[in-house]
Write a structure and sequence with these properties.
With about 900 residues, the protein is an alpha+beta fold. The chain contains 14 helices and 48 strands. The protein has five domains: about 100 residues, Immunoglobulin-like; about 200 residues, Galactose-binding domain-like (Jelly Rolls), CATH 2.60.120; about 100 residues, Galactose-binding domain-like (Jelly Rolls, Sandwich), CATH 2.60.120; about 350 residues, Alpha/alpha barrel (Glycosyltransferase); about 80 residues, Maltose phosphorylase, domain 3, CATH 2.60.420. The strands form eleven sheets. Strands 14, 21, 22, 26, 27, 28, 29, 30, 31, 32 and 33 form an eleven-stranded mixed sheet that branches. Strands 2, 4, 5, 6, 7 and 8 form a six-stranded mixed sheet that branches. Strands 9, 11, 16, 18, 19 and 24 form a six-stranded antiparallel sheet that branches. The protein is globular, with a radius of gyration of 28 Å. It binds beta-D-glucopyranose (BGC). The site of beta-D-glucopyranose has 10 residues, from helix 3. It catalyses: Hydrolysis of terminal non-reducing alpha-L-rhamnose residues in alpha-L-rhamnosides.
Length: about 900
């Protein structure tokens, strides 16, 4: 189609999805697109839609808009109905009506409205044992179709997790469907195109069901099983439009006697512990028509309120490609049966598919996984705690490819025991998983170790963006810890488009806040161990404000602010009530651990990460001041003048109290009551000294001094780490920033790289210099929080930083240093690609700049250190090659 297509105008994206999408929730979806170059003054865009209801005729409509309305254009037509399909193209014309380019088409479809959800949840009808390791069921049904399908959609959800088959073939490629939400209040329903999998005549649907987050054992300290319910079930609604014009509806239910269930070959499956599968229990053909299911039981209904089912905002967890082993070593075994150690060269969230062959009936293959090896070369599984990541396969004697379905693993190394004969790469197909997101950020430099650190940051992000943003992907935890994403969100939003992913999670944060009266430590919340009673703590709770603000700055979408306002103001109002009269948050939170402060500060002992050197009330007050500042700006964007001025006053009160309590300006030099990297860093980076330039510079100078005194070693935990380098740069101390970043001593980022890290670690010394694993019970090699340093790499090595929401204006201010001769970063902004790449030649900076249509780049030129001839120059859309003298 589209012979007139040019790359001048992109195909529109719908809401925050990328590509064609089925089952969206918005009836008036907003559209966004980009231009390859700035359209001429007065240019217009004609938006054409061809819309069609199942069984109906196509209707074509057009609307004309300004070419500048290309970011989140309000749907210019009548709202879409439930299940309606839309195919949209764009035509760009100049003010005289001459065609400049036509976009490719974008297809999307709305999901089921609540009144159209007629399926029930159905599952096992037998009484299940009272344990969390239950034998998992299959569900099936058969039906006839009067003609070949013209279009067919399967709407699928589950209490638990589900994988669907049609006529023996897998539906879609999503994993852990329907993902993790606060099931008590909302559950997502996914839509699939199954047109090509159906036939005229007899057809069958089959479903594998797993415990997942719904009733599997969740979390640490023994965890909690059956948290949302103790019965699992599938919701399936198939709608088929036949070539003869017929419409057939098939929906799961317990009353038409056509839906049957039986125990399947998955003996048990736990998200953390692994899956046990017995191929001898397979019943060939179970999801095809004609299968004899007379021995199967009728299904039972599992009650769930259909009004809580939602059409998703985010993309599913999907297969993201193959991971190849870099070595396979035989480590034991007798006779024909071998044990092997596999190294995949990269720690990440993945699962192995193995070609099981040569096994006699009843023979077992045992597969274990770990992030790192102990010093004796064995798999380090202690740190996994209960999350032992152990799969066990029992053969039925036939040849089969097998991969677990309802567990997830994160590992670099694996062992396989019980393997018959030689294990080769031909038998291994390891698949990588994370939520589908659009990549938007890149970085490279002339320093290979920095580039490796950046790749590690990417892998820790991907590993932990699995349905919700988690702390770690391997041990018995994997919770949506709010503090971790508070710190990492700006980095995440640069590397990937996380608008859909994080705004979906924010919904759950809000739901939990309403239930518990505060922002819980993690969302979805599960009462566990010392964390059983949600309580307001700084950084973690502040995510309620920082994450929406980050999304707004990255995407320019005011809706995320409007949707988050109750969450934001709820947090601000709650904590306002805890402040002392001088505005300092020094009241101890009412649960066993109190404030976590600069959590995992490198001086804290392995068994007590809360013992940080920086005062907790200082950290808490600084973070709260930042939240109140963001909240006042949000109020302004949302047109709430009174709230805006109320929060501005509150901010001033906190800052005044902060200065009075924590800053000593009596001497010639600035000193804070906590004379630590963290204290100065957050004060400067959060703008708490902006009203007093001497104080700000003094704090930056002291920070730089502390860095020099430490020999260029990091001295911060979660709270301070993202802000040390930015605060140094903001006060003209780039060389100290580089000395921290480029240090390879413990603790430092490149220490981890030097120790062979392939992801970013939870602790600076998750692995100690002698190669031993930190003895702390909480030691992960795949946490993204400390990887937040990548944001400084994007902003100050590459040189790109958004100044206005949605990158309308952005700063280009690369700071050379650290012996780097080249730096480059690019970001796919909502307006198109922005790029800053430089080379240092004879002390001169050759800067290559790309500015997308609709944006302005503010390039900082002149010497940073003297500050004297430093000035900003603006550059419009297009490509620019500049020569900037450094001094
Ligand atoms: C998690 C952290 C989290 C912390 C809260 C840990 O167990 O892994 O990343 O933020 O607890 O204190």
């Amino acid at each position: 189609m589209d012979s007139g297509y040019t790359a001048v105008i992109s195909a529109p994206e719908v809401e925050h999805f990328h590509g064609d999408v089925l089952g969206i929730g918005d009836h008036r979806p907003r559209l966004s697109w980009t231009y390859a170059s700035q359209p001429p003054e007065g240019a217009r865009v004609t938006v054409s839609v061809t819309r069609r209801m199942p069984g109906g005729d196509p209707v074509r409509q057009e609307a004309e808009v300004d070419a500048g309305d290309n970011l989140l254009l309000a749907w210019p037509f009548a709202p879409l109905s439930s299940r309606e399909e839309a195919v949209v193209t764009l035509l760009l014309q100049d003010c005289d009506g001459r065609d400049l380019g036509r976009s490719l088409e974008r297809r999307f479809e709305s999901g089921l409205d609540v009144t159209d959800r007629i399926a029930d949840f159905v599952g096992p009808s037998w009484s299940e044992v009272e344990t969390d390791h239950r034998h998992l069921p299959l569900v099936r049904t058969e039906f006839g179709l009067p003609s070949r399908p013209k279009a067919a959609r399967l709407y699928l959800s589950a209490l638990g997790v589900v994988q669907a088959e049609v006529n023996g073939g897998r539906v879609g490629s999503d994993e852990l469907t329907p993902g993790w939400t606060v099931y008590r209040d909302r559950l997502e329903c996914w839509a699939y195109d199954v047109t090509d999998q159906l036939n005229k005549g007899a057809n069958a649907l089959g479903f594998w069901l797993g415990d997942g987050w719904y009733r599997g054992r969740l979390g640490f300290d023994g965890g909690m099983a059956n948290f949302y319910g103790d019965r699992i079930g599938v919701f399936a609604q198939l709608e088929v439009e036949g070539e003869d014009g017929s419409i057939t509806h098939i929906y799961s239910n317990s009353w038409d006697r056509r839906w049957k269930t039986s125990m399947g070959p998955i003996v048990c499956s736990d998200l953390y512990e692994g899956e046990t599968y017995d191929a001898r229990l397979e019943e060939p053909g179970w999801s095809r028509p004609g299968f004899d299911d007379s021995a199967w039981a009728p299904v039972a209904e599992v009650p769930y309120d259909p009004s809580k089912i939602e059409n998703p905002k985010l993309q599913a967890v999907r297969d993201q490609g193959k991971s190849e082993p870099v070595s396979i070593t035989r480590i034991g075994g007798e006779g024909g049966c071998g044990s092997y150690l596999l190294d995949f060269g990269q720690n990440r969230t993945q699962r192995m598919r193995l070609h099981m062959h040569g096994l006699r009936k009843g023979a077992q293959v045992s597969i274990r996984h770990a992030e790192v090896l102990e010093q004796d070369g064995t798999l380090a599984t202690r740190t996994l705690r209960r999350g032992q990541e152990h799969d066990l396969y029992t053969s039925d004697g036939s040849d089969a490819w097998w991969e677990p379905r309802f567990t997830m693993h994160a590992f670099r190394y694996a062992s396989i025991e019980g393997w018959p004969g030689e294990l080769t790469t031909d038998d291994i197909d390891c698949r990588i998983y994370y939520s589908d997101m659009e990549r938007t950020g890149w970085f490279s430099s002339s320093n290979e170790m920095l580039d490796k650190l950046h790749r590690n940051v990417l892998w820790s992000m991907r590993s932990n963006f699995v349905s919700i943003p988690t702390d770690c992907p391997q041990r018995d935890e994997r919770m949506g810890w709010t503090g971790d994403i508070d710190l990492f969100a700006p980095t995440a939003a640069y590397l990937y488009d996380v608008q859909g992913f994080l705004s979906s999670w924010l919904k759950d944060v809000r739901i939990e806040q309403e239930k518990y009266g505060t922002v819980p430590f993690f969302a979805p919340f599960v009462p566990l161990g010392v964390w059983a009673k949600p309580c307001a703590i700084a950084i973690w709770g502040d995510a309620a404000v920082a994450v929406p603000w980050t999304l707004y700055m990255a995407g320019g979408d005011e809706r995320v602010l409007a949707e988050s306002w109750d969450l934001v103001s709820g947090w601000v109002e709650e904590v306002r009530g805890y402040l002392s009269p001088d505005g300092v948050w020094d009241r101890r939170p009412d649960y066993p651990l109190g404030q976590l402060g600069d959590w995992l500060d490198p001086t804290a002992p392995p068994d007590d990460p809360t013992q940080a050197v920086t005062q907790k009330e200082l950290v808490a007050s600084a973070y709260f001041a930042r939240s109140v500042d963001y909240a006042s700006r949000m109020a302004q964007v949302l047109g709430m003048e009174d709230k805006c001025s109320d929060y501005k006053k509150l901010y001033e009160r906190i800052v005044a109290g902060y200065h009075a309590r924590f800053v000593d300006v009596s001497g010639s030099a600035v000193r804070m009551t906590s004379d630590t990297q963290c204290a100065y860093a957050i004060s400067v980076a959060f703008g708490l000294f902006d009203g007093n330039p001497r104080l700000k510079q003094g704090a930056g100078d002291r920070l730089a001094e502390l860095v020099r005194e430490s020999g260029g070693k990091v001295a911060t935990g979660f709270a301070g780490t993202p802000f040390v380098l930015p605060a140094l740069s903001e006060t003209s101390h780039d060389s100290e920033a580089y000395s921290l970043l480029l240090s390879t001593d413990c603790p430092s980022w490149l220490y981890q790289v030097r120790m062979g890290a392939t992801t970013t670690w939870e602790r600076w010394d998750s692995m100690r210099p002698d190669g031993s694993i930190n003895p702390g019970g909480m030691t992960s090699f795949n946490h993204y929080a400390l990887g937040s340093v990548a944001q400084w790499m994007h902003e100050r090595i590459g040189g790109l930083k958004a100044l206005e929401p949605g990158w309308r204006t952005f700063e280009v201010d690369p700071r050379t240093g650290g012996g780097l001769t080249e730096g480059s970063t690019s970001h796919l902004t909502p307006r198109g690609l922005a790029e800053s790449s430089w080379k240092l030649v004879d002390g001169e900076l050759h800067l290559h700049l790309v500015v997308p249509a609709g944006s302005t780049a503010r390039v900082m030129v002149g010497a940073v250190t003297s500050g004297v001839d430093r000035k900003a120059e603006d550059y419009g859309p297009g490509t620019h090659d500049l020569l900037i003298k450094r001094r």
